[in-house]
């Protein structure tokens, strides 16, 4: 597919510096390898309908399934969803409890389907003691069940904080006694949780909010960001396809320098 | 009767070849499935000896690491009864060094010494007698000539252990009164006996291959544990059962005979189905190792795990919350203490715990003198360092609480010394790096992929760093965990 309209000011000039991908894969038709979604707007969606905030979260379930299917269909290899941040614990305890139950129900409901679709599921974070034990068990079970799948990898960031991941990597480096001179970006990345995760190519944050909110800070370094105004419960496969299409129009330059490929295994 | 004269230990080195080797009676029985039951029974009889019992309680890791212990024992017996004289003499020397390090005093201040001639004779006597009983119980008693050949082999085995090896009665005719007298007069209801009969089978840890399936293992053990216990008790000599207050379970005698008979019938299975060494290897196999059998097992195990996970996920939600799973690369001080440091499982860190580590390491590396002594000395220095810095209440041993309170001070110079000595020992060709083969000797598995990437050797500094971070940083390690933490 040929580029019809330039999106933003930067894409009209040809790529001057070496992009990450082989030269054969030009801008057109290139599917982002790793897409991440910040699922924002559930509360506002409910408020617009004079419903309790919790019903916004319930409505989000349908979108999650829709987006997983859309990503799979589009040929995305890695999909990450930001479900719950370390800062979300400060929400009213009733809402947190509700979320925990909802997530547990959703995980159990869709586990066989996800497995049947060959999707490998992972949960990033999940270290807080406040996570109910049965939920943690379900997460572990889903990871065990789908661990050998070779389809798309779905990473659910639950109780996740980008900074705490970096701190965790630093701890791991110190424990391993890596000397300061030996440390470079690649070595550092190998100590992050799930070090085989590649850099994020595209982040979609719904509801028009334009913030990072401590999400996969290390991996989004060179990501393209999109902020569709639609609220997450209204976000559908078509919106997802639109975002991927827009991404394909963009000219990614990586600051003119090819960064180290993230996702190499820990040395 | 063979021409071998058991009365003269010196001759054993020359006449050994005629007694040992693949043609020996021992070899016939070592591949017999009933031998497993006989070996358990022999261990119980050994443990009932006050000196052996005390030594086992203080030094042995058989409660916490029974599978490792089983493999080591089996390997040692195979070497002793194998065809190669040189291997045999080396193994005898190694056993002597190992046993020379085991001595002390029990809870009642009674001294024990693993080099005591009487004690060593008794251990060999139980091995011999248990094979004879095994055949008797399964309804195929040995012929007199076979029994005498077997007896001569065991005498030769004892004689190989050298000057202080102790003495079995010169003839089989004199053996039986000796055995009966020992049972009637020497054996006691020792703590080790009670642990083996009542604790070991109920709490037998899963072998590493089944380590991730605790539920499956526990279910099998619940059934098999008491049965093996009952079979063993029923096969013990009556005077010992009376003295130790062991119950006479109705029908246990019949059960015992049936069990021995049933296992005896396994001999008629096609050759290759029953291979004791294969089985022993399998039990001490680590799922992550690169052994081809491990891969098959891992695949099966993963399948079971996935099926279990799916089952749990599709089961309708239970109302009550389940237990919290604990997972992660690092373990707590308590876990590390329990899994790695407390090798004898008595709840304290003491010299025998570190000695057990040194024993396991030198066994794996097949060390000779003086390397073995260097390793033991390094561990002894480490022990003194630990004692000086951790033993807060001065009772000579380190409790879990004392350890947890002082974890940061664990990586002292003596620990680094242990790592260096271990490196020297593992680096058998002395080229200052550990190659693939040397690595395999220590960890029984090949290099990890990440290591081959960085050049196919393991340097001194990297080795020391990994060892120290495992021992002090409580970091889990795919190499050291199978070596020191698993059963």
TrEMBL record, chain B:
Domain EF-hand: 390-413, 414-449
Family annotation (SUPFAM superfamilies): EF-hand (SSF47473)
Record protein name field: Uncharacterized protein (DUF2236 family)
Species assigned in the record: Streptomyces avidinii
């Amino acid at each position: 597919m040929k580029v019809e309209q330039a999106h933003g000011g930067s894409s009209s000039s040809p790529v001057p510096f070496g992009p990450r991908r082989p030269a054969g894969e030009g801008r057109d038709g290139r599917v982002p390898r790793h897409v991440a979604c910040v699922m924002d707007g559930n509360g506002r969606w409910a408020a617009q309908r004079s419903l309790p905030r919790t019903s916004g979260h319930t409505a989000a379930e349908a979108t999650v399934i829709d987006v997983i299917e859309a990503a799979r269909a589009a040929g995305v290899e890695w999909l990450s969803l930001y479900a719950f941040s370390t800062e979300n614990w400060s929400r009213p305890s009733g809402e947190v409890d509700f979320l925990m139950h909802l997530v547990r129900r959703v995980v159990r409901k869709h586990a066989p389907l996800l497995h049947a679709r060959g999707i490998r599921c992972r949960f990033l974070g999940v270290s807080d003691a406040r996570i109910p034990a049965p939920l943690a068990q379900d997460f572990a079970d889903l990871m065990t069940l789908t661990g050998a799948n070779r389809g798309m990898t779905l990473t659910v960031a639950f109780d996740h904080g980008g900074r705490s991941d970096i701190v965790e990597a630093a701890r791991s480096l110190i424990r391993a006694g890596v000397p300061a001179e030996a440390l470079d970006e690649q070595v550092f990345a190998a100590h992050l949780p799930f070090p085989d995760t590649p850099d994020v190519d595209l982040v979609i944050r719904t509801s028009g909010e334009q913030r990072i909110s401590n999400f996969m800070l290390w991996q989004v370094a060179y990501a393209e960001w999109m902020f569709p105004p639609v609220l997450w419960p209204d976000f559908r496969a078509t919106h997802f396809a639109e975002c991927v299409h827009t991404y394909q129009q963009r000219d990614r330059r990586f600051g003119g320098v090819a960064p180290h490929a993230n996702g190499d295994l820990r040395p | 009767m063979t021409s071998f004269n058991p009365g003269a230990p010196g001759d054993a080195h020359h006449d050994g070849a005629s007694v040992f080797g693949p043609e020996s009676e021992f070899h016939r029985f070592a591949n017999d499935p009933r031998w497993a039951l006989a070996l358990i029974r022999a261990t119980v009889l050994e443990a009932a000896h006050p000196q052996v019992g005390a030594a086992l309680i203080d030094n042995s890791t058989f409660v916490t690491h029974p599978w490792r212990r089983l493999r080591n024992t089996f390997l040692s017996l195979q070497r002793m009864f194998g065809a190669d004289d040189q291997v045999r003499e080396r193994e005898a020397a190694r056993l002597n060094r190992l046993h020379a390090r085991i001595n002390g005093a029990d809870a009642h201040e009674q001294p024990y010494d693993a080099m005591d001639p009487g004690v060593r004779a008794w251990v060999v006597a139980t091995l011999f007698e248990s094979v004879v009983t095994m055949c008797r119980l399964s309804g195929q008693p040995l012929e007199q000539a076979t029994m005498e050949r077997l007896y001569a082999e065991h005498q030769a085995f004892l004689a190989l252990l050298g000057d202080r090896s102790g003495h079995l009665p010169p003839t089989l005719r004199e053996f039986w009164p000796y055995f009966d007298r020992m049972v009637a007069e020497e054996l006691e209801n020792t703590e080790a006996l009670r642990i083996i009969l009542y604790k070991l089978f109920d709490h037998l840890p899963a072998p590493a291959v089944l380590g991730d399936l605790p539920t499956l293992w526990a279910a099998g053990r619940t059934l098999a544990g008491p049965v093996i216990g009952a079979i063993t008790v029923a096969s013990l000599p009556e005077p010992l059962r009376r003295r130790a207050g062991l119950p006479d379970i109705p029908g246990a005698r019949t059960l015992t005979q049936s069990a021995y008979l049933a296992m005896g019938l396994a001999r008629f299975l096609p050759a290759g189905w029953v291979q004791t060494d294969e089985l022993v290897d399998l039990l001490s196999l680590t799922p992550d190792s690169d052994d081809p059998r491990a891969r098959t097992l891992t695949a099966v195990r993963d399948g079971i795990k996935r099926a279990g996970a799916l089952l749990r996920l599709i089961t309708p939600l239970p109302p009550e919350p389940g237990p919290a799973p604990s997972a992660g690369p690092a373990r707590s001080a308590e876990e590390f203490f329990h899994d790695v440091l407390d090798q004898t499982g008595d709840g304290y860190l003491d010299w025998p715990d570190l000695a057990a580590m040194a024993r396991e390491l030198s066994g794996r590396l097949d060390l000779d003198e003086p390397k073995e002594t260097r390793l033991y000395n390094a561990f002894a220095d480490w022990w003194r360092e630990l004692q000086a810095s951790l033993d807060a209440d001065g009772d000579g041993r380190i409790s879990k609480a004392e350890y947890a309170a002082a974890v940061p001070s664990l990586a002292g110079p003596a620990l680094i010394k242990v790592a260096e000595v271990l490196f020297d020992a593992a680096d058998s060709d002395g080229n200052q790096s550990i190659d693939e083969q040397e690595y395999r000797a220590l960890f029984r598995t090949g290099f990890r992929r990440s290591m081959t990437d960085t050049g196919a050797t393991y340097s001194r500094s990297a080795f020391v760093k990994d060892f120290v971070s495992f021992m002090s940083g409580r970091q889990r390690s795919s190499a050291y965990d199978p070596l020191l933490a698993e059963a």
